[in-house]
């Protein structure tokens, strides 16, 4: 390769970021990290590639170094997150890089985990390894926004996915909703499920749709996320698909902290993890408490798929970080069911505000993605 060192660094970091994406939804509580090892010389060949493996181990650096073998000596390691510097289930990646003879480490961002947070860089420099940071930082932060959120805010990143008509309806007045969008858009939704750690719905959606909440893309069936149902009064039938499949598909049910313990026990007997949530001043379960509970379980990212009341609750509490909005070229009218329940806003100035990130087409359906303007 020819060109400036900065261009080299950006190119190889982009390769590492693409590798890191393979781990999204499959490595919690760890971040999804990518690493490439590049041998010295004008050809600059990649001699090792790695990404965080299912369940979070082995780490990306360990995988890349294993594949590089002896070729790692004197090479450059490009990694999307600061290498870990502490002993956990495995030795620190900093020591693996030092032992392999890496001469330079290029990292996209510092690890927000307080156990690392600059200590990895310090260990590498102390060992005589040159360290460069800040390459493709914004892309790396977006990639691991869920991990960053859990480390800094104690809760996962929350993405609200909605599929509506042009006039913002998710169903007719009779409740019919299958299917507003086409097959391509629905397949994209299943891919979203595969790249998130958890999928959340409200009790009304669970009752009306009796969903499975699994990823049904060929080859990705094993990437189905944790299923989360917010059902304060435990209305979910024990005969529902969610309950009947709980023995094989991890499922979490949020209930009120004053709920009937015998009913809760029946769900537990069916294999469901039941978590009691405190009640807020409005008499409903506190959404911030639910997200904190997920963060404590190591969940980095949550995909909220319904329904209108849950969406409004999270939006009203300023807990939605991203919007994934599918629009079908159809109209239902004012008697249809709105995608978001009333927010009680009297002024436009109080309206939640988002920035559009992307626009794409899936068949005849349009997909827009948005990100909140700032964290809470």
Outline:
By secondary structure, the chain is an alpha/beta fold. It is built from twelve helices and 16 strands. The chain is 29% helix and 23% strand.
3D architecture notes:
- This protein is α/β, with parallel strands linked by helices and 376 residues long.
- It is built from twelve helices and 16 strands.
- It has helices at 5-20, 60-68, 93-100, 119-126, 137-143, 145-153, 183-194, 203-209, 241-244, 261-269, 287-296, 308-316; strands at residues 34-38, 46-51, 76-79, 104-107, 130-133, 157-165, 169-171, 198-202, 226-230, 251-256, 273-277, 301-306, 322-328, 337-338, 354-362, 365-372.
- Strand 9, helix 9 (241-244) and strand 10 form a beta-alpha-beta unit.
- Helix 3 (93-100) packs parallel to helix 4.
- The protein is globular.
- The mean pLDDT is 92.
Biggest sheet: strands, sense, closure? Answer: 9 strands, mixed
Strand content: 15-25%
E-strand count: 16
Give the oligomeric state. Answer: single chain
Overall average residue pLDDT: 92
Strand order of the largest sheet: 11-10-9-8-12-6-13-16-15
Shape: globular
Determine the N-to-C terminus distance. 44 Å
Order of helices and strands: HEEHEHEHEHHEEHEHEHEHEHEHEEEE
Helix content: 25-40%
Secondary structure class reads alpha/beta
User: Low-confidence parts lasting 5 or more residues at pLDDT below 50?
Assistant: none
Instruction: Tell me the Rg in angstroms.
Output: 23 Å
Number of helices: 12
């Amino acid at each position: 390769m020819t060109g400036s060192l900065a261009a080299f660094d950006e190119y190889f970091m982009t390769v590492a970021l693409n590798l890191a994406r393979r781990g999204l939804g499959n490595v919690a509580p760890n971040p999804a990290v990518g690493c490439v090892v590049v041998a010295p010389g004008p050809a600059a060949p990649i001699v090792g590639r790695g990404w965080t493996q299912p369940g979070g181990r082995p780490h990306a650096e360990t995988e890349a170094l294993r594949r590089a073998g002896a070729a790692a000596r004197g090479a450059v390691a490009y990694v999307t997150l600061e290498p870990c510097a502490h002993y956990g289930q495995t030795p620190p990646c900093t020591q693996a890089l030092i032992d392999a003879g890496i001469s330079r480490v290029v990292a996209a961002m510092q690890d927000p985990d307080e156990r690392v947070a600059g200590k990895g860089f310090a260990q590498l420099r102390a060992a005589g390894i040159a360290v460069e940071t800040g390459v493709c930082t914004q892309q790396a932060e977006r990639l691991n926004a869920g991990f960053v959120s859990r480390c800094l805010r104690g809760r996962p990143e929350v993405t609200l996915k909605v599929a509506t008509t042009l006039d913002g309806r998710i169903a007719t007045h009779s409740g019919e909703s299958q299917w507003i969008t086409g097959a391509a858009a629905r397949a994209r939704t299943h891919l979203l499920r595969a790249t998130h750690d958890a999928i959340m719905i409200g009790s009304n959606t669970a009752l009306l749709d009796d969903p499975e909440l699994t990823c049904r893309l060929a080859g990705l069936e094993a990437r189905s996320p944790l299923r989360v149902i917010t059902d304060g009064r435990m209305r979910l039938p024990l005969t529902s698909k969610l309950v009947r499949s709980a023995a094989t598909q991890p499922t979490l049910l949020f209930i009120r902290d004053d709920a009937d313990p015998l009913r809760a026990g029946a769900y537990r007997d069916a294999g469901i993890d039941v978590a009691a949530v405190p009640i807020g001043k409005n008499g409903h379960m506190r959404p911030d408490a639910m997200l904190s509970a997920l963060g404590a379980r190591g969940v980095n990212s949550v995909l909220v798929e319904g329904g209108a009341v849950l969406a409004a609750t999270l939006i009203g509490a300023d807990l939605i970080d991203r919007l994934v909005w599918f629009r079908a070229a159809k109209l239902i009218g004012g008697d249809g069911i709105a995608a978001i329940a009333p927010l009680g806003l009297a002024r436009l100035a109080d309206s939640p505000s988002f920035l559009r990130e992307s626009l794409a087409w899936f068949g005849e359906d349009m997909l827009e993605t948005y990100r909140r303007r700032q964290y809470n």
